[in-house]
Amino acid sequence: MDEKEIFLTAEGLKKLELELEELKTVKRKEIAEKIKIARDFGDLSENSEYDEAKNEQAQIEEKIVKLDNMIANAKIIDEVELDTKTVNVGATVTLVQVESKKKLEYTIVGSAESNPLEGKISNESPVGKAILGKKKGNKVQVQLPNGNVVEYKIQNIKRN
Questions:
Q1: Are residues 97 and 150 in the same domain?
Q2: pLDDT tens sequence across 63-93
Q3: How many whole angstroms separate alpha carbon 3 and alpha carbon 145?
Q4: What pLDDT, on the 0 to 100 scale, is given for residue 75?
Q5: Which portions of the chain are predicted below pLDDT 70?
Q6: 13 occurs within a structural domain
Q7: pTM score, whole prediction
Q8: Which of 16, 43, 77 corresponds to the end of one domain?
């Protein structure tokens, strides 16, 4: 099965690698210790501490596999080579909502790094999809999750 490319900045890749290292070296040891202690409580069939520790172990292992796959399929966004004529992953875009004249600034990132509270939206989000490949001055219509349609004008495209 082909995995899809995961767009990441160099900083985003570093964060994922650090998180993966933490899970593999620290969290695995912590959970192994919890399981060992829970085993000492006796009968495993009625041992909620043991069950909880095993569930936590499964979640950590699942997260490790997910991070390994994301890192393996990472496509690093080279911000130096970023074209500011069109909207691409890695660009910071200033949008003006046509009706209200409200200005918004977003950096387009891969889904692994998106954080709307920090102004980072995914290239797979409704706004991200609508503006990818567009140029300064273009207008786009975006259907929001609530069903409303909002029109934006791309005012500026810049490197981060």
A1: yes
A2: 999 999 989 988 887 766 667 888 988 899 9
A3: 26
A4: 84
A5: 1-3, 44, 79-82, 160
A6: yes
A7: 0.69
A8: 77
HEC per residue, the chain: CCCCCEEECHHHHHHHHHHHHHHHHHHHHHHHHHHHHHHCCCCHHHCHHHHHHHHHHHHHHHHHHHHHHHHHCEEECCHHHCCCCECCCCEEEEEEECCCCCEEEEEEECCCCCEHHHCEEECCCHHHHHHCCCECCCEEEEECCCCCEEEEEEEEEEEC
Beta carbons of 57 and 35 less than 8 angstroms apart = yes
- How far CA 135 is from CA of 89, 106, 129, in Å, comes to 13, 15, 13
For position 63, which CATH number holds?
1.10.287.180
Q: What is the per-residue pLDDT for 1?
A: 42
